[in-house]
Design brief:
9-stranded antiparallel sheet; Beta-galactosidase, Chain A, domain 5; 31% helix; alpha+beta; 37 strands; 669 residues
Length: 669
């Protein structure tokens, strides 16, 4: 048998036309993560546009306490007596200076590592940014890739020490900067984690010079504080000989960092991700799946739970932590379809420890100790993710381990738990909601205004409730219990679920039995009633639901959260926080829903090639916003510009899950 050639990730590369256009280059954002919640991120242009951008954003209490420690580096090279900046910055008066983007000849991803090539006459310098897996450490490398004479490289390190949601004001802040043992150490204030700057082969000089008034364009657009200061704490310099490389290390770790070992760790980690994906997918592995597998890994992070090492999922970069709902929706795509079931098991076990009153946490806050349980669906998605895990692995031991938790979940839902979550004895359906609380995935809230309260019996919640009961009926014999009771409950829910159907509309109500009756808004939640493998909807109505969503909600990048014909429809997502949250689920397009839609389309029409074609624009999108990844949301109106997080876990996961499953169907059918 001929061995299959290794499948490389889908290339992501930009040339002079993109890189030399400031508007285009600053709209493209890169990200590298370290697997414990920390990251480095910026724009292809090299200037910061968000408060969240930084070369070392350290997770000091993994995966939280994310702290911007190094905002940027300002670089220049001396060639034959002339200074040439590689840096780009925009200031409060909108001046762009220096203009290093004009020297970017190319930018590409090497695996996940961002690479810039700067061209100055005959010389070209390549720059790479790496993050060490499991460490709050960033490694910068510079190589003279072309040129017959040496150049002098100078790199100024700009530091801060602030929460990543904030901005910096210098005031009279005096950081302690000192040289010690061939490195520079920066202590922002007493008790703070120190920043260590080392440069093997580079000369390091301490500095203390504030740069004030960086303009952060994306924060300005979002109606938030958009000015930021940073402190020049160190200058590293070295001669770059032809085909020679120098390294600069920025770390919040107390131990020594071996740059060469760090580089090998990054390469080995990425190759392990790709090897797992290739081994799992076999001959179906392709460059799209490989690219998404690399993107998927960025969301998988460590979380210690009850003094035990655990795992979780960062919902999105830059500003999300780990959310229960997002984690469980994303888990199958991030782990099972990438050949990493052990990670899936660890995440499921971690979250099971936090189940309280039959509920999974909605969110692990950045700093608070109290978990937030305001979600009706995260727990049901937990059961769905567990079902997918068992189906993929046959690991029945996890059912034995978690069965008491599963029984607790159903018991609390049947007898009532937080936020009005309770099974209605009259029909077996699950109702939820109370005034002032947002508990479904459509969870935008502005002050006391819950934009989409959805109090009552929600369509996707009850589709998940049915699936939960069916799944526990399938699990029961594995733990020596009778399945009959679970099957009877599920049958009752299935019968009652048909109440969501409206003949006069030809689709499912979004909510029934609400405070003001039934909500017949055409929303995408109903697609889950067709996409879930255990569907409660009569099969004869599946096509109507798919067609209704296709006609009004489907776009190239996802499904609108509300039909354009509705009076509350908002075509654009933007403005200040109130305007954005008011549009978040009122027409804004959500990428993650396109995966379930494609699978539902295949279920109805039986054509996997056509179904997979719905996903192709999202594959193109990996070059459009967060390079190598998929955005959180898009405008409801054309051209459906990307908005929100540059990289969202469930966007990547559901695209990948649907992509590989539909490819598999193409081969089988």
């Amino acid at each position: 048998m001929t061995a299959l050639a290794p499948v490389a990730p889908l290339p992501v590369r930009y040339g002079r036309d993109d890189c030399g256009d400031l508007g285009r280059a600053e709209s493209l954002e890169w990200l590298v993560a370290n697997g414990i919640g920390g990251y480095a991120s910026g724009t292809v242009a090299g200037l910061r546009t968000r408060r969240y951008h930084g070369l070392l954003v350290a997770a000091l209490d993994p995966p939280t306490a994310r702290t911007v420690m190094v905002t940027d580096v300002h670089e220049q090279v001396q060639i034959a007596g002339g200074a040439h900046a590689l840096t780009t910055a925009r200031w409060r008066d909108q001046t762009v200076s220096p203009r290093g983007f004009e020297r970017i000849e190319a930018f590409w991803l090497e695996g996940r590592t961002p690479v810039w090539r700067f061209a100055i006459g005959e010389h070209s310098i390549e720059k790479r940014v790496l993050m060490v897996p499991g460490r709050n450490t960033t490694v910068l490398t510079y190589r003279l890739a072309r040129g017959h004479t040496s150049v002098r490289l100078e790199v100024k390190v700009l530091a801060a020490y602030r929460d990543y949601h904030a901005t910096t004001r210098s005031g009279g802040w005096r950081m302690q900067v000192e040289a010690r043992g061939g490195e520079l150490r920066v202590v922002p204030f007493a008790g703070a984690r120190e920043l260590r700057v080392t440069g093997p082969g580079m000369t390091l000089e301490a500095a203390h010079n504030w740069y004030r008034g960086f303009d952060l364009a994306r924060e300005r657009e979002r109606g938030l504080d958009f000015l930021d200061d940073a402190l020049h704490v160190a200058t590293a310099s070295a001669d770059l000989a032809p085909d020679h490389e120098v390294i600069l290390i920025l770390t919040a770790e107390p131990h020594e960092v071996d740059a060469e070992r760090a580089r090998h760790q990054v390469a080995a980690h990425e190759e392990a991700i790709l090897a797992d994906y290739r081994a799992h997918q076999g001959p179906l592995a392709d460059e799209v799946g490989a690219r998404l597998a690399l993107a998927a890994d960025q969301f998988l992070v460590r979380r210690d739970a009850a003094h035990e090492e655990g795992a979780t999922v960062i919902a999105g970069y830059h500003w999300f932590t780990d959310w229960g709902r997002d984690t469980m929706i994303a888990l199958p795509g991030l782990t099972l379809e990438t050949g990493r079931p052990a990670v899936a098991r660890q995440v499921l076990s971690t979250y099971a420890r936090f189940v309280d009153r039959g509920m999974l946490p909605n969110r692990f806050p950045d700093a608070a100790t109290d978990l937030e349980y305001n979600t009706v669906d995260a727990t049901l998605w937990f059961v769905e993710a567990l079902r997918e895990y068992l189906e993929a692995t046959g690991d029945t031991t996890i059912v034995h381990e978690l069965w008491p938790v599963l029984e607790q979940i159903v018991a609390h839902h049947e007898h009532g738990t937080r936020y009005g979550i309770l099974v209605d004895a009259a029909d077996g359906l699950l109702r939820a909601g109370e005034a002032g609380i947002q508990i479904t995935w459509m969870d935008a809230k502005v002050g006391d205004w819950v934009v989409t309260p959805r109090t009552g019996k929600c369509v996707e919640v009850n589709a998940l409730w049915y699936s939960t009961l069916v799944t526990l009926g399938e699990f029961a014999p594995l733990v020596g219990q009778d399945a009959g009771g679970w099957q009877a409950r599920a049958a009752r829910v299935r019968e009652s679920f048909q109440r969501f159907w409206r003949d006069d509309l030809g689709y499912l109500c979004d909510v029934i039995d609400g405070p003001e009756g039934d909500d017949t808004s055409l929303r995408p939640n109903q697609i889950l009633a067709v996409a879930l493998p255990r569907s409660p909807l009569e099969s004869g109505r599946h096509r109507a639901v798919v067609d209704a969503c296709a006609d009004a909600l489907v776009t190239s990048h996802g499904l609108r959260s509300l039909a354009p014909t509705h009076a509350s429809y908002r075509p654009m997502y933007g403005g200040d926080p109130r305007a954005r949250d008011g549009a978040y689920h009122q027409g804004t397009v959500w990428a993650w829903l396109l995966g379930p839609f494609a699978l539902a389309h295949h279920r109805v029409y039986g054509n996997p090639r056509q179904a997979r074609a719905f996903l192709e624009p999202l594959i193109d999108h990996v070059r459009a916003y967060g390079v190598g990844s998929i955005a959180e949301i898009f405008d409801g109106a054309a051209p459906h510009r990307p908005r929100g997080c540059i990289a969202q876990a469930w966007s990547v996961a559901e695209t990948l899950r649907a992509w590989v499953r539909l490819r598999r169907q193409e081969v089988q059918e």
